[in-house]
Task: inverse folding
């Protein structure tokens, strides 16, 4: 599916990386209904062979959230369905077929932070800033933020952000867990693509287990989690690629883990 404000590029030697770019710089990449539906359709129809996706925003900002110029007066039922539309789209990001890396810069605000929190790895450059202004605008998060963001930073910090309009800069955001990587200005996409190449080289079953099973284990009681882990571990290690990688390590053909600087 094509959309005038959402761009899909295939990168890598085998076109195994899908670069998905929001292209509404005139709106700070704010998301309207058509764009959230296009994002859902993109993840539902990724080209065969894609192993990892990177989400980026064109221009000075990753995403400034919901396009408030399209905010309509809705009754409770209409509002419920609108929120569920966002849930369905961002579920395709979090629980889609491949790991997703967000390249963050500038505004990562409101619905933009909800989108980023649905990704599996977040790389922020030093221009990034994080906020949830819904509280000051008389509305509430509706794109899954109340579930995903507290898992990153805790309920108390999210409550503070919404009650007071607090804005976190890139350094504090990375420290709190809103991003896992912090890079100099302008280098978020470069770092995200570097990580994407690394992730694309993993065994597909391992990647699938990490994005589909690990978050669900985290929500299970411990005894259920241990059983799920055992089942998935047995499936993953039985895959031909896994066996080949273990054999290569035992034969001294694979790199050992080294301490980084």
Result:
């Amino acid at each position: 599916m094509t959309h005038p404000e959402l761009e899909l590029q295939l990168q890598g030697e085998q076109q195994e990386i899908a670069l998905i770019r929001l292209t509404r710089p005139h709106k700070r990449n704010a998301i309207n209904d058509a764009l959230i539906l296009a994002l859902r359709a993109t993840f539902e129809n990724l080209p065969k062979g894609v192993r990892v996706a990177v989400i980026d925003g064109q221009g000075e900002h990753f995403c400034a959230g919901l396009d408030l110029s399209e905010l309509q007066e809705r009754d409770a039922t209409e509002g419920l369905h609108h929120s569920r539309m966002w849930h369905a789209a961002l579920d395709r990001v979090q629980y889609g077929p491949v790991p997703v890396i967000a390249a963050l810069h500038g505004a990562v605000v409101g619905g933009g932070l909800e989108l980023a929190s649905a990704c599996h790895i977040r790389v922020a450059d030093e221009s990034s800033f994080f906020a949830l202004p819904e509280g000051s605008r008389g509305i509430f998060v509706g794109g899954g933020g109340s579930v995903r963001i507290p898992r990153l930073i805790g309920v108390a910090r999210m409550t503070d952000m919404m009650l007071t309009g607090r804005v976190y800069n890139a350094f504090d955001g990375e420290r709190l867990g809103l991003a896992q990587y912090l890079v100099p200005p302008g280098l978020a996409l470069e770092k995200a693509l570097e990580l994407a190449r690394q992730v694309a080289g993993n065994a597909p079953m391992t990647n699938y287990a990490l994005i589909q099973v690990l978050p669900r284990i985290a929500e299970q009681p411990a005894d259920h989690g241990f059983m799920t882990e055992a089942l998935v571990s047995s499936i993953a290690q039985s895959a031909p690629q896994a066996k080949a990688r273990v054999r290569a390590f035992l034969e001294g053909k694979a790199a050992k883990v080294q301490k980084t600087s």
About this structure: The longest helix spans residues 76-94.
